[in-house]
Amino acid sequence: MRSKTKENDSDKLKTEQAEKDVQKLKAKTVEEIAKRIEEAEAADESSEDSPFVSEFEDSDDESLTGDDGSVDESGSEKSELSGDEDAVQSSDDDNPVGSSDDKDTVEDNDHSSVSKGDGHDNLGVEDGIGGSDDSGAIVEESDSSEDEVAPRNTVGNVPLVWYRDEEHIGYDLSGKKIKKKEKKSKLDSFLARTDDSKSWRKIIDEYNDEEVELTKEEIGLIRRMVESKAPHADFDPYPSYVDWFDWDGAKHPLSNAPEPKRRFIPSKWEAKKVVKYVRAIRSGLIKLDDKPKEEPRFYALWDESSSADRQGLAYIPAPKPKLPGHDESYNPSLEYIPTQEEINSYQLMFEEDRPKFIPKQFTSLRSVPAYEKAVQETFDRCLDLYLCPRVHKKRINIDPESLKPKLPSRRDLKPYPTTCYLEYKGHKGPVMTISADSTGQWIASGSKDGTVRIWEVETCRCLQIWNIGETIQEVAWNPVPELPMLAVAAGHDVFILNTRCGSDEQQRKIEELLHVDPQAGADDSDTNVSIVDWGQDEAHGGIRLKHFKTVTKVEWHRKGDYLSTLMPSDILFHGHICSNCFSDNVIVGSKDGKLCWFDMDLSSRPYKVLRCHPKDITRVAYHRSYPLFASCSDDCTAYVFHGMVYSDLNQNPLIVPLEILRGHTSFDGRGVMDCKFHPRQPWLFTAGADSLIKLYCH
Amino acid sequence: MPKHYRPAGKKKEGNAAKYVTRSQAVKYLQVSLPVFRKLCILKGVFPREPKKKVKGNHHSYYHLKDIMFLKHEPLLEKLRDMRAYEKKVKKAMSKKNRDLAERLLTRKPTYTLDMLIKERYPKFIDALRDLDDCLSMVHLFAALPAADRVVDGEKIPVSRVHNCRRLSHEWLAYISRSHKLRKTFISVKGIYYQAEVEGQKITWLTPHALQQVLPEVDYRVLLTFLEFYETLLAFVNFRLYHSINVKYPPILDPRLEALAADLYALSRYLDANGQSSSMSSEAITSSGSDQAESELRLAQFQQQLSSNEPGALMNLVEDAAREDEDDLETQQCKNLFKNLKFFLSREAPRESLLFIIPAFGGTVSWEGEGAPFEEFDQSITHQVVDRPSQGHKFLSREYIQPQWIYDCVNARIILPTEKYIVGCVPPPHLSPFVDNEAEGHVPEYAEAIERLKAAERKEVLPLPGMGKEDLDDPQSLLGIIDRAEAIEAAKRKQKMSMKEKVYHEELKLELEGAQYSAVRSDVDDRVAEADAASDLRQMAEDAANMSEVGMPRKKRKLLEAMKIGRQKKQDSINLIKKRKKRIDEARSSA
């Protein structure tokens, strides 16, 4: 339904054209205006009398609804009223209303229908419900005519583009051209705008080519629309419902229909629903009592019948917590309580070595406090239980002695040297080297004091002394018993000495041998002239072989015909190389104290490594006839081993440590310098840095 | 991942396929870490140690089978449901939809752990084997204050504490009633008990009955463990109670329960029910609807009956019947305090003693309401007192400190009481869990107890310090066989060398033409003797080390490690012995 509207009348008429015009403009201007409103709100002066077309949008629907109503109700009056309309229009022309008659005008529905029927499309601004018709038709008409006042321009709803290039913008009612106004220059318009404080409420109506100033009410209207409210301030969108119908007084029912049967019989669907619930309750699906009855929660879980196998992976039970010892007692034995110094010394320990628990004595049970770490320890235990990886670990609980290999009884492996039997004293310096005669009657020794001595083995008698003057590196007996000669390496020289130990015949033979003419020497080693220089040594009664470097080793060939010498960085072969070996097995002693047994047939790696000496091994020796070998070291000990090699290849060599021989004392960081076996007996000679030679016998 | 889901390019076998890290497992199971943790705890899944740690050393690895085991656990789905439910409740709450929230709160999804227990412990004996942690934890929580408190954001509900108390009392009542307690030990941490149930030694720790310290730990973990343990212990109790023909859960006298004498109430219930089950089984079956009340009445009736003559007689008969079943140790335990009557002063640890004394056949009462007999009862033989001095003393009874009972129990004899009288410092309390002989140091009081025990058995023990340990220690015996040989050989050798020396000496003297003098040889002998002693040791050592020379490195290292371990142990014993010596010296000088 229409509500009443306020209107301002002005020279600008409110017509549908104008409306449309405004509608068109609206898009452009509403925002602009809204903005302007905001700007000028504060400085807004209350100015009235600005003509404006009041209705924009809602006039559309209102007119439409109006249309419907009109169609329903009146059709007959059309013709008369159309006449009316005409008159109104004309009158409009006559008196262009300058004054604003701001009053609520009430119109009949007829009028709106008139306007509709008039052929002017949707228009009907001024309508009202009920009201006094008698207030004066003229006023009414004038009012309505004001509403219906056609725009000055009569071109209708055509695009204004058509008139763009023309001088006029259309025609007025009398058919005269309406001239376009002079366009103001931008500057002028700007100045005008700045001068005129009301310029913000002015908009240009392009259709009629004129400036329209919006009134305060219109501005308010626009603002409400922008806020998406109803345009009219006093429009109540949610009126409280008034029930106009007078219920009580009605004598007759509204409907004449008889009461239906279903109002008298119980509902079938409800019955079905009830049956459903009843059944559910009966079957126990719905329990009505609030608290369900306490079921016995526990039952015989482990009954005999059920299968008893654990599923999943093998279960590794967690280790049980450690049981407490005496020291955890509240009243421990006094010896379990650490003294104050001990407790203080815990502070110096590493965090992880420090004892976690310090025993303490309480004199009575009542004085024992709560254990402050109880929850913490339980928590730690829980963490262990679910976070620690579990593995089966084999804990060896055996006597450590059982780890040691079982050795064959040493009694069965006799004879071997066990005790020091004789000591040969005489050298003034560390004895560097010893050598046993092949007959086993003599031994020769060389010392750091520059002497070579020959001893009789059984009596400790020193038979002969040569003073070479340099540190003796090596002495070696000729292995041929008939030729008891001695090769001595000292400094750059190798001496071959006559020991005078043999019989006369042998002596003669040796002297013959040891006589060297310079030519022979040259013949002997013509290729190695620069290396070895042969010559007679008169002072010691032998041959002197001069080398160009220090000789450290000298060794005879087994047959006694050749000898080899070793100079560091260069080995000269005077025959075969000789090494400590049983058939295919080589024993090597190294400076890191390891004794390696190499089986040449087996591998290039040692068959057995014996870690016997903590210090350098100075010499290893093997026995010619007994299955014995020995090592001596700077730690003042000599080890004797049983080393048996079997002819059966399937049987591994048997290596048994037999004896540790002690007795030498350390001198200048050196211990035992050399060891040699007696050629026949299972005896061992050792030469010590303490200038002693010892003989160990079985 | 499992075989049929294995994407191309993943490992088929080996450690990479068999083990997954924890984060992988969590991702695979599509649960959050707390839920995974809970599942692991309840299900008993623990990380394992793969031979090769494919992802690095700082991860914990789970076996894929374990993870699949978790994946197929119905509990997983339950936990997911609970999470969804919590979300629903929260949502309703925050939308202020009180109706929905309240309705939801009445329908909280629950789960039970029965099947998990069955799965983890297929046999009852398995459950007993793993009961140590369970009992310790339940007893710890039973000792926590029964007040709702928020510790570290996590609430320990009062109901849980009460439940723990109930369960622990039930357990103690069973052990006490069936005389299965074997050892007790008061430590600083609490009181340790060891019982033997179905051949399994079960040890647990009960904290001292004092206010417990609650540190900042993750109580969610503890409560999850507790949840499992509570269920486990309840089922174990059920089984144990039924094994002695008593209904579970027991119905207690509310009067005694109110007086916090649950344990006594329970044991009374057990006693009563144990007899009634055999005597009047019809009575129990006939009591139909309101079973609880009638049960209780019956229990009280039985209690009264047992004090009368026919009841006592019945009791005796039954005891005799049962004695055949009991093993020797149980018999011994049952009769330790047989004719003794104890009275506990109010400062004595009541709960512990109420448990121990009946377990060893004694009768006990305490100062307070609900006690079976009063302090002035003339038949009381011992009164347990833990105070500096006792005012009024009855001459007919002995006043002892609580430790006496614990020591008696461990020694299994009635010890003389003079060392435990009121006001004095009792003798040291020794741990029954230590094998003194194996440890290497026997405390003085342990020896004293041993002698007393021997006197009880009418045997004669060798006096201390007779070299008994040498013979007893099997390890030293073993060593002797090896070493003795070496020493003997060395001795022989030494003798020979000495003889040789003497021979040479004589030879020299002879050469010099001097007279053989006995005096000189005597002196020599002495010197040689001293030499021989050191040499002998040297030789023995040599002989021992000889075989080490050829040992492979791996074995040698192992041997060294073992030696170090033994040395450490020996050192600690030496330290104790040193302290003991010092104390003795101080005492003798004082």
TrEMBL record, chain A:
Q: Which SUPFAM superfamilies match?
A: WD40 repeat-like (SSF50978)
Domain BOP1 N-terminal intervals: 163-417
- Acidic residues bias locations: 55-71, 82-95
One of the GO biological process terms: maturation of 5.8S rRNA from tricistronic rRNA transcript (SSU-rRNA, 5.8S rRNA, LSU-rRNA)
**Which InterPro entries does the record associate with it?**
BOP1/Erb1, BOP1_N_dom, WD40/YVTN_repeat-like_dom_sf, WD40_repeat_CS, WD40_repeat_dom_sf, WD40_rpt
- Pfam families reported for this sequence: BOP1NT, WD40
GO CC annotation terms, alphabetical: nucleoplasm; PeBoW complex; preribosome, large subunit precursor
Record GO terms (molecular function): ribonucleoprotein complex binding
Q: Which UniProt keywords apply?
A: Nucleus, Repeat, Ribosome biogenesis, rRNA processing, WD repeat
Q: Where is the composition biased (Basic and acidic residues)?
A: 1-39, 100-123
Would the keyword rRNA processing be found if you checked this record's keyword annotation?
yes
Q: Where are the WD repeats?
A: 424-465
Q: Where is this region: Disordered?
A: 1-159
Q: Where in the cell is it found?
A: Nucleus, Nucleolus; Nucleus, Nucleoplasm
Indicate whether Amino-acid biosynthesis appears among the record's keywords. Answer: no
Q: Which family does it belong to?
A: Belongs to the WD repeat BOP1/ERB1 family.
Q: What does this protein do?
A: Required for maturation of ribosomal RNAs and formation of the large ribosomal subunit.
Q: What is this protein called?
A: Ribosome biogenesis protein BOP1 homolog
Look up and give the organism this protein is from.
Answer: Perilla frutescens var. hirtella (Perilla citriodora)
From TrEMBL, chain B:
Biological process (GO) annotations held by this record are: maturation of 5.8S rRNA from tricistronic rRNA transcript (SSU-rRNA, 5.8S rRNA, LSU-rRNA); maturation of LSU-rRNA from tricistronic rRNA transcript (SSU-rRNA, 5.8S rRNA, LSU-rRNA)
Q: Where in the cell is it found?
A: Nucleus, Nucleolus; Nucleus, Nucleoplasm
Keywords, alphabetical = Nucleus, Ribosome biogenesis, rRNA processing
**Residue intervals of the BRCT domain:** 332-422
The molecular function terms of the Gene Ontology recorded here are: ribonucleoprotein complex binding; RNA binding
Q: Name one GO cellular component term.
A: preribosome, large subunit precursor
Primary residence: nucleus
Per its UniProt entry, which superkingdom is the organism in? Eukaryota
Coiled-coil region(s) at which residues? none
Q: Name one Pfam family in it.
A: BRCT_2
Spell out the InterPro entries in the cross-references.
BRCT_dom (IPR001357), BRCT_dom_sf (IPR036420), PES (IPR010613)
Q: What does this protein do?
A: Required for maturation of ribosomal RNAs and formation of the large ribosomal subunit.
Family statement drawn from the similarity comment of this UniProt entry? Belongs to the pescadillo family.
Q: Under what name is this protein listed?
A: Pescadillo homolog
Task: Provide the species name.
Answer: Perilla frutescens var. hirtella (Perilla citriodora)
